[in-house]
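Example complex used in Figure S2.
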Amino acid sequence: MLATYTPVVGGVLIGIAALALWFGNGRTAGVSGIVAGIVRPRQSDVSWRIAFVAGLVLAGCIGYALKQDSIAPSPRPLGLLAFAGLLVGVGTRLGGGCTSGHGVCGVARGSRRSRAATATFVATGMLTVTLLRLWGSSR
Amino acid sequence: MKHARSRLLVAFGAGLLFGAGLLLSGMTRPSKVLAFLDPLGAWDPSLALVMVGAVSTYAVGIRWGSSRRRQRSLEAPLMSMSPPARIDAPLLVGAAIFGVGWGIGGYCPGPSLVALASGQSGVLVFVGCMVLGSFAATLLDATPHRSAPRRDGEALQS
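Predicted assembly (297 residues):
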């Protein structure tokens, strides 16, 4: 019962957080874009980005302290995780967003670009997981 | 700027709440994410509900808030500030590359930052490489990234 509802509750919290950032600061809660603005600052708007990321990490600290299995390690080996990180970094900059910016905020605004991007990354994500599973089971 | 401190507080609070949502929804457990991305295997579709919850909340809030704001002032409505969207090659290629990385690691950017708190080596490596990739992409190509995020409303000032 609880397991069914927590993803929805989590999603609603994510939506409220994104609304707070939009109506409070006029910013879209796109995590990859927020990170990119820290990595390569455009203007003098780095501090709110750092504050947002600090909030994310602090949430992680509190969650991990309360319930250790709320954050689990990835089942993939380190080499693959390094490759995955590079792809996520490059792909989100090229595509201008990730699961939050395109998948939540963009889709909710009815953006055609974001809908196309979300359909694409979910599709290639599913394809990748399927291929890796088949490859793993054939060895 | 006199509002600088309140802007920082809003951003920090939003990050905290956003992270709590990711934790509650199970997005910080890559094996769950990978199971969501495995419709032909041991599929766990529950993470679709995260999207449903987040998208409907944001959609309702943004419409309600924007219409209230319109009534209060003569300013142009926020929603119209994004120029017409064009679906182009960088968008689709970038999203495809991101999806492959998501399917390999089971992390997208938000959850990976939350998961940093665990100090687990895998997520440290992932985030390090993600930052590197992000930096490399913005270096390699200076123009689309100035405009692309803006099309999606990222750099808009309220």
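The radius of gyration of chain B is 18 Å. Confidence is low (pLDDT under 50) at residues 143-158 of chain B.
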